Amino acid sequence: MATFLYKLGRLAFRRRHFVALIWVALLTLAGVGAASAPAAGTTSFSIPGTEAQKAFDLLEERFPGMSADGATARVVFKAPAGEKMTDAANKATVQKTVKELSTGSEVVSVADPYQANAVNESGSIAYASVTYDVSGMELKDASREALQDAAEQARESGLTVEIGGDALQATPHTGSSEIIGIAVAAVVLVITFGSLLAAGLPLLTAIIGVGIGVSTITALASALDLGSTTSTLATMIGLAVGIDYALFIVSRYRAELAEGRDREEAAGRAVGTAGSAVVFAGLTVVIALVGLAVVNIPMLTKMGFAAAGTVAIAVLIALTLIPALLGYAGRKVRPTGEKSKLLGGGRAAKNAGRPNMGTRWASFVVRRPMAVLLVGVIGLGAAAVPATSLELGLPDDGSQPVSTTQRRAYDLLSEGFGPGFNGPLMVVVDAKGSADPQAAFDETGDRIKALDNVVTVTPAAPNKAGDTATITVVPDAKPSSATTEELVHSIRDTGTAIAADTDSEVLVTGATAMNIDVSQKLNDALIPYLILVVGLAFLLLIVVFRSILVPLKAALGFLLSVMAALGAVVAVFQWGWLSGLLGVEETGPVMSMMPIFMVGVVFGLAMDYEVFLVTRMREAYVHGENPGQAVVTGFKHGARVVTAAAVIMMAVFAGFIGSSESMIKMIGFGLAIAVFFDAFVVRMAIVPAVLALLGRRAWWLPKWLDRILPNVDVEGEGLRTEAERGGLDEEKRLVRA
Fold first, then answer.
1. Per residue in 584-605, is it b (16+ CB within 10 Å) or e — as a string?
2. Distance CA 648, CA 642 (A)
């Protein structure tokens, strides 16, 4: 591995024009493809294997004109104080609004509140339901504008008018904080390298990689049914790992220059050593992202594959474009310890002979390993405590900021009709095999009315064939509550008994039931996913480190960091700690895909630091140092770079906290805090403490396993032989430098 990458690095350095041309051509091709591709439609949100999805599919088959997956809007009206919605003037305003809405080209139907019994008992609040023939993301801007214009005209008459539902669903924006994250990354790189040019290389290559990845996603979005969240995740992950991988290569290149090697040789050795770590770190990230397919949620699978593709591009760029650009930079990228003329006049750094911070910290940990280990484990355990109160759900209009019309409409409906009105359940009765379908419909409605926590059950509405009917059930609790989830399970249990008595099938669907099914599916998939991803990465790390205990320690440390990160997410987004500082306007259940998503992404990113830091230790140990000294040597060369990489990754992820989309905001915060815990507590404290306690046992591998494992030579041991074959002894390298 190291020898092949060494040759690749030297080739890219020598043939820099050709390599740069290839990457520019790929970026141009992806950009042209994105510009000429048809606009992406909605991402079809299907959950194979769930009852809610089965019911949706049945509705499409038996109610062909129903547009079960079409966008909906609820235009909510509230009369001024002392008036009622049934007053003549207010009624005329509502009916005028309904008439205007019904003229839309994508509108299927608009329900008049006065004919649909959609006025509350006090007469203060009414709503009109609007149904469209396309989903919220496919809805034309003209239809959204017509909806908002109709509401604004109604407000002019003195009514309070708000709009709920998914018809106003729009592509989320991340805000200026994403740019701030990249700016922080730039500052960290300048401080790390002491050179503007060396700092600019990782940023430039990361942007090129993300540009190719996101442009490709955009070009394929329509054909592969990719949504906006897919490109956002690819940007988030691609920027973070792209900067980090380039940082690893450039840092090792400068270290090789400091040892007296010429620039081509230094580029080859940087790619052969740090590049090996980049390859295996990238593989762990790809495994974690691609492994999301085991959940069997198409949207999540597509997000994982798209982000994995962007990571693969970042790895290839680090191995080829970075050495090519280093060839262009020439002497402007200086050896470790020297600063540019702008930042230090080309002078060597002060106190060059003094041990750096990484060396001093590692020496302290090696002297006090048990104390450091206990503090780290207890600290992460305390941070993980809130995770014991984890409540899962999917966001609805109730989780929107109070400044939005969707949230205000949600609150008005809760005020006028009860909290459960915002999450009605749709019960589908398939009586095609029943001798008396109408009796099956009636019995289903009667049995549901007898259940607890039910406010309203509408009469069954059969299709034209009379073999299938829908029944709307309004719970007495809000959609995301545990009470509503219990009601869904109660209806399904009742449906089993009804099926036995009437030869019909009862299914529960709707947005609320779909959210419950998604949460359950994600929970069920978490353990298999953990076993698959951690197991594959464990085997990969055994090959890299040729050890059993080091990969085991890496996996256990990851579990500590991800649990602590989940605890922090619960504390902020569920309990409300620091919510004002982070712009979280509404607390509630944690997004149901957050645990499995964090497990996948954080595991891959955590292994980046593990591979880069511990391969340096392994390299020192293989070259003859004792275990304790190898830990110190690993930190001497790797701590500064890993620290910079972690700060950069945190800055990039934290930039997405400014997103208008609650899911992106939560993911950005969760990943940023997870990187902090994993890099600075697990990898910088717990890992060296455990290795110091284990000593030589840390690198133990059964002889039979050692014989059958492939030798990937991540430490670059084979490069010495390669250098000798090329006739480049130490003296010649010093002369050529």
1. beeebbbbbbbbbbbbbbbbbb
2. 10
Query: Is 487 within 8 Å of 419 (Cβ atoms)?
Result: no
Which amino acid is located at 154 in the chain?
Answer: A
pLDDT digits (tens, 9 = 90+) for 600-656: 777 777 777 787 788 778 878 877 788 889 889 888 877 888 888 888 888 878 877
Round the average pLDDT of the chain to a whole number and report it. Answer: 82
- Round to whole Å and give the CA distance between 254 and 188: 17
What does residue 127 show for φ and ψ, rounded to 5 degrees? -145, 150
| Region at 528 (left for phi over 0; alpha for psi -120 to 50; beta for the rest) | alpha
Encode pLDDT of 406-453 as tens digits: 889 989 989 988 888 888 898 999 988 888 889 888 899 899 998 988
Distance between CA atoms of residues 265 and 261, nearest Å = 6
702: left (phi over 0), alpha (psi -120 to 50) or beta: beta
Please name which of 730, 90, 143, 72 lies closest in space to residue 422, comparing C-alpha atoms: 72
> Which tokens go with 685?
């404290």
Give Dmax (Cα) for the chain: 99
Distance CA 544, CA 614 (A): 10
Cβ atoms within 10 Å of 579's Cβ, excluding its own: 16
Indicate the SS3 state at residue 457. Answer: strand
Per-residue pLDDT at 344 exceeds 60: no
Of 366, 343, 346, 294, the residue nearest 599 (C-alpha): 294
List alpha helices for 623-728, DSSP H: 627-654, 662-676, 687-694, 703-708, 718-725
Burial of 65 (0-12, 13-18, 19+ CB in 10 A): exposed
**For residue 42, what is the DSSP state?**
P
**What type of residue sits at position 151?**
A
Q: Convert 45-86 into a string of H (helix), E (strand) and C (coil).
A: CCCCCCHHHHHHHHHHHHCCCCCCCCCEEEEEEECCCCCCCC
Which positions ≥6 away from 639 have C-beta within 8 Å?
Answer: 356, 357, 358, 359, 361, 362, 613, 684
Quickly state the pLDDT bin for 125 (edges 50, 70, 90): very high
CA distances from 569 to 565, 617, 661, 677 (A): 6, 33, 16, 13
